[in-house]
Amino acid sequence: MKAAILTQMGRPRPYATSRPLVVEEVKLGPPGPEELLIRIKATGLCHSDLSVINGDRPRPLPMVLGHEAAGEVLECGPGVTDLKPGDQIVLAFVPSCGSCLPCMEGRPALCEPGARANVAGTLLSGARLLRFQGEPINHHMGVSGYAEYAVVSRRSAIKVDGSLPAHEAALFGCAVLTGVGAVVNTAKLAAGTKVAVVGLGGVGLSALLGANAAGAAEIIAVDVSPEKLEVALRLGATKTVQAGPDAIKEVRDLTDGGVDFAFEMASSVPALQLAYDITKRGGTTVTASLPNPEHRFSISPVQLTAEERTLKGCYLGSCVPARDIPRFIALYQRGKLPVDRLLSEIISIDGLNEAFDRLAEGKSIRQVMTFQS
Question: pLDDT exceeding 70 applies to what percent of the chain?
Fold first, then answer.
């Protein structure tokens, strides 16, 4: 099958020239117990993939990237009885074992075996089923969606409505799952609250859509890009603020002292600082971004205490994917979450390097790679 392999992190931009992703013919082993062979139909381009390419999120190499994917079940491994060939599925990028303590507490995003497998570049079973020229290739987040086919854990797969176009279904595997989940699960946003979203990529704009659907009274969109601010207004932002030296004062003036909830989705420590500084006394700052692990964020413990602030991390949208992905798709189908408007462009596997240039330059919201409709 065709697959896009990353062999070296940190190659210089433009990627159209340095070509960090190379499309090669690779071999894929058959599914084992509790695994599925799927045909990849669509895979989104996410900042988390870019963070591996640029070296901000070190991962074992070589690796087939891509974690926001939708596909069709072709074959079920031993022990899989609740799915069948032909089912359309969306893949969650944390395969949850179902039996560790976080899973039993209803927090599959924190699954311990799933986290270990993702860091190691294996499937949940510990297997590496990709081969190139006889050598093993690592899996990305249990998915490796920049390929024509994938073998995944049954624990990564959520069955969805087969009538949903695959290029739309894929968005629910990360952008929507994380952004909307941050609003409804992590923040548990109540109607009538004041909200800011800092960073207007696919995840940030999904959070904006989620805040709108949840009944936020005010939604302040913050980004460095005027074009993305215009998109945010079309998607339901009540006001926009361009990120810069005056942004904190501007947001505080617009909201009488700050927002109830600020969502930071820019994968940047300065963006997180801005989000924290525009949150009012007693408010909550939620971050779902993944900057370089060496970067640090400083806050005043006195302010945290005296102003009763809350700073919360959000991974996988604090979601239970089997519960939340079908819920979010149902809201989309009812017109409550117009996530199709996040789609910037559909590309082929051969255009990935150029597409990651556009993502790195902030010129796209969500690009999706497809093999078929």
Answer: 99
Domain boundaries for CATH 3.90.180.10 within the chain: 2-173+338-370
Q: Give pLDDT tens digits for 61-97.
A: 999 999 999 999 999 999 999 999 999 999 999 999 9
Q: 13: number of CA atoms within 13 Å, CB side?
A: 12
Provide the CATH topology of domain 2-173+338-370.
Quinone Oxidoreductase; Chain A, domain 1 (3.90.180)
Residue ranges, CATH 3.40.50.720, the chain: 179-315
- Can you give the pLDDT at residue 372? 60
pTM here is 0.96
> At which residue do the structure tokens 């697959």 appear?
3
Provide the pLDDT confidence category of residue 292 given band limits of 50, 70 and 90: confident
Q: Which residues contact 256 (CB under 8 A, 6 or more apart)?
A: none
- Contact criterion met (CB below 8 Å) for 68 and 22: no
Average pLDDT over residues 301-327: 96
CB 352 within 8 A of CB 369: yes
For domain 179-315, give the CATH superfamily: NAD(P)-binding Rossmann-like Domain (3.40.50.720)
Query: Tell me: the pLDDT tens digits for 231-276?
Result: 999 999 999 999 999 999 999 999 999 999 999 999 999 999 999 9
Neighbours of 101 (CB within 10 A): 10
Token couple for 278: 């525009």
Q: In what order do the strands lie in the sheet with 279-287?
A: 239-242, 218-223, 194-198, 259-264, 279-287, 310-313
Q: Is residue 373 pLDDT above 70, yes or no?
A: no
DSSP state of 147: B
Give the integer Cα–Cα distance in Å for 243 and 265: 13
Give residues with Cβ within 8 angstroms of 235, minimum separation 6: 205, 208, 209, 212, 338, 341
Strand partners, 149: 39
The tokens for 350 are 């051969």
